[in-house]
Write a structure and sequence with these properties.
Elements: H1 8-18, H2 35-53, H3 57-62, E1 66-67, E2 72-73, H4 76-88, H5 106-119, H6 121-140, H7 143-154, E3 158-163, E4 179-182, E5 188-198, E6 207-215, E7 226-232, E8 243-248, E9 259-264, E10 277-281, H8 288-324, H9 347-379, H10 383-419, H11 429-438, H12 447-458, H13 461-484, H14 486-511, H15 515-519, H16 522-545, H17 551-567, H18 571-579, H19 584-587
Parallel strand pairs: 3-6
Antiparallel strand pairs: 1-2, 4-5, 5-9, 5-10, 6-7, 7-10, 8-9
């Protein structure tokens, strides 16, 4: 039976026919693996996701976590699924063997985790955050911290979180007020409040390892004074740390993920008889935000991957429904007594399905390409290749987070539309998939934040090296497509013209030296460049399909054609608006609303 979560055929195409993951096994880090071990990992992920995560998706949506004043009650099915997940070893799939990991390539790990996100985004959020937490500590923690906190996370005995936001600060980390006071024993006492902490309190694991941003008194102002601390729910001596749950936040989606408001150092518990939660400094003082970006960037691409998974599942549900739902007759049919046809026969339904396919499969290519860059950054043969992969990943990260969060949500919207009136009823999965995916446009930073990041930092970093590298990488694909000729060559000409235009518009935005004007429409810039990047990846897929025959490859060609004819042209008016240095949003006054 065909899965309605992900397409294994598409994953195999992208991994093997396009990204050539088999070649990674020639590198020392991945030498113990081969195509069979990659296939086994994907098979296992699909099986566990389908049999243990999917069955309680609706149940955890309608029975979200409850705080009774003492403890958080979560459906037992969630813990049962996570226990199975821990047994598979997938938590450490991409980590070093010396900490209990499998050392699978990041691109294979990403492909595996997509199954869990598609099956049950609420339950998958717990290991998602845990893996990112552990990876940060592996990069910046001490050997003792890794043994004490990371190894139990890899084994599935502990879960992890990230504690950044505060009620009064939101995304503005400059305004973080949580304090960390140094103690004579080398620990710190943490006091403050953190908001929107997913997985912040539960009994799904033996411990919760919080990574907390806080400021040490006397440090530099703003973000330069932020440090990072490990603040576990339970200390190594099994004493309860002073972390108190204030209450739960109830979201429109991800309802199976407990989301919390936490007080650190409230005085409910006093470890060692002293006030404040015990925290352990990660790395050096005042460098916490730089360390946290390790987890944040991983989470940003992961949020984009979650958006892809939900959009892809919505597309597959809509396709299945359209093939099985008879309604209406072809426009040219003259006999009203003629049998009805499945709605997939109607051109407008095919238009919606093609759009959803182009978004979902384009987004999938984007997040897997980013994961492949991570493998290059980690294992490429030369420092120059590693630096290139790092820079390209830096530029693509805001796009990998935001583009799927916008356009794979659009795929979910279209999935509801294909279902008609049934689509917005709770009896059909596409309603929940849409609600779950709507959160991803805000998770790990809004479009506005990532637009500012892309235009204000990433494309201009190192004198514009980031944008030049992205353009040169696209240019290489354009040249291959020109040489291939035919439809690929036609798409290449269109893409080349838009890439040149992006370069001109970027220069024009910054030519006046006024950051307010340059960044006023940064979200429009993000959307336009995102569409250019996905068009490039569709051209890459078209080249990978080559002259191969069969329905799968014909579908790839049709989706690429749709994206170039229906979607890429959207960027024209957007780039024109940006080039005009439009001040409409800047000049708008509060009183005029």
């Amino acid at each position: 039976m065909r899965s309605l979560l992900m397409s294994r055929r598409d994953l195999d195409f992208l991994l093997h026919e396009w990204l050539d993951v088999d070649s990674l096994t020639k590198r020392e880090r991945y030498a113990e693996h081969d195509r069979d071990t990659f296939a086994a990992a994907l098979d296992l992920a699909a099986e566990v996701a389908t049999e243990h995560f999917l069955p309680h998706r609706k149940l955890s949506d309608t029975n979200e976590p409850v705080f009774d004043g003492e403890r958080v009650e979560i459906l037992p099915e969630v813990k049962a699924a996570l226990d199975v997940f821990a047994e598979t070893g997938i938590v450490g799939a991409g980590m070093d063997a010396e900490v209990g990991g499998m050392q699978l390539p990041a691109v294979v790990v990403q492909a595996c985790f997509l199954w869990f996100q598609a099956a049950n985004i609420g339950t998958s959020a717990y290991p998602f955050l845990t893996v990112a937490n552990a990876n940060l500590l592996l990069a910046h923690g001490t050997r003792e911290q890794i043994e004490t906190w990371v190894r139990p996370m890899v084994e599935g005995r502990y879960f992890g979180t990230m504690c950044l936001s505060e009620p009064q600060a939101g995304s503005s980390l400059t305004d973080v007020t949580t304090r960390a006071v140094p103690q004579d024993d080398g620990t710190y006492r943490i006091t403050g409040t953190k908001m929107w902490i997913s997985g912040g309190e539960h009994e799904l694991s033996g411990n919760i390892v919080h990574l907390v941003l806080a400021k040490i008194p006397g440090g530099p102002p703003g973000v330069k004074g932020i440090s990072l601390f490990i603040v576990p729910k339970v200390l190594a001596n099994e004493e309860r740390n002073d972390i108190a749950l204030v209450g739960l936040n109830h979201k429109m989606g991800y309802r199976g993920t407990v989301n919390t408001l936490l007080n650190f150092g409230e005085g409910k518990w006093t470890p060692g008889g002293e006030p404040g939660a015990v925290g352990y400094l990660v790395g050096e003082e005042h460098r916490g935000l730089a360390y946290m970006f390790h987890m944040m960037n991983e989470a940003r691409v992961g949020v984009g991957a979650g958006a892809v998974a939900l959009g892809y599942a919505g597309y597959l549900h809509a396709l299945d429904y359209a093939r099985s739902r008879p309604q209406g007759r072809p426009v040219a049919a003259k006999d009203p007594a003629a049998p009805q046809v499945p709605i997939v026969a109607h051109p407008d339904v095919r238009r919606m399905l093609l759009a959803a396919k182009s978004y979902a499969e384009g987004g999938l290519a984007l997040v897997l390409y980013c994961a492949r860059l991570l493998d290059e950054e980690l294992t490429a043969g030369t420092d120059e290749e590693k630096a290139r992969a790092n820079l390209l990943l830096e530029v693509l990260t805001p796009i990998a987070k935001s583009w799927p969060s916008q356009w794979c949500l659009a795929a979910n919207d279209l999935a509801i539309q294909v279902h008609g009136g049934y689509g917005y009823t709770r009896e059909y999965d596409v309603e929940q998939l849409y609600r779950d995916n709507r959160l991803n446009a805000i998770h790990e930073g809004t479009h506005g934040i990532h637009g500012l990041d892309l235009l204000g930092r990433k494309v201009v970093m190192a004198g514009g090296a980031g944008l030049r590298l992205l353009s040169a990488t696209i240019d290489a694909t354009v040249e291959k497509a020109r040489a291939a000729g035919g439809e690929a060559g036609e798409h290449a000409e269109r893409l080349d013209a838009v890439v040149r235009r992006v370069g001109e518009v970027t220069a024009a935005l910054w030519a006046g030296g006024d950051p307010e004007v340059a960044l006023a429409n940064a979200s429009v810039y993000l959307e336009a460049v995102g569409h250019v990047v996905v068009a490039w990846l569709w051209l890459e897929q078209l080249l990978a399909a080559g002259e191969k025959t069969g329905e799968f490859y014909d579908g790839k060609r049709a989706a690429a054609r749709f994206f170039f004819r229906y979607e890429l042209p959207r960027t024209g008016p957007q780039l024109d608006l940006l080039a005009s240095l439009d001040r409409t949003t800047l000049d708008m006054q509060d009183e005029w609303f």
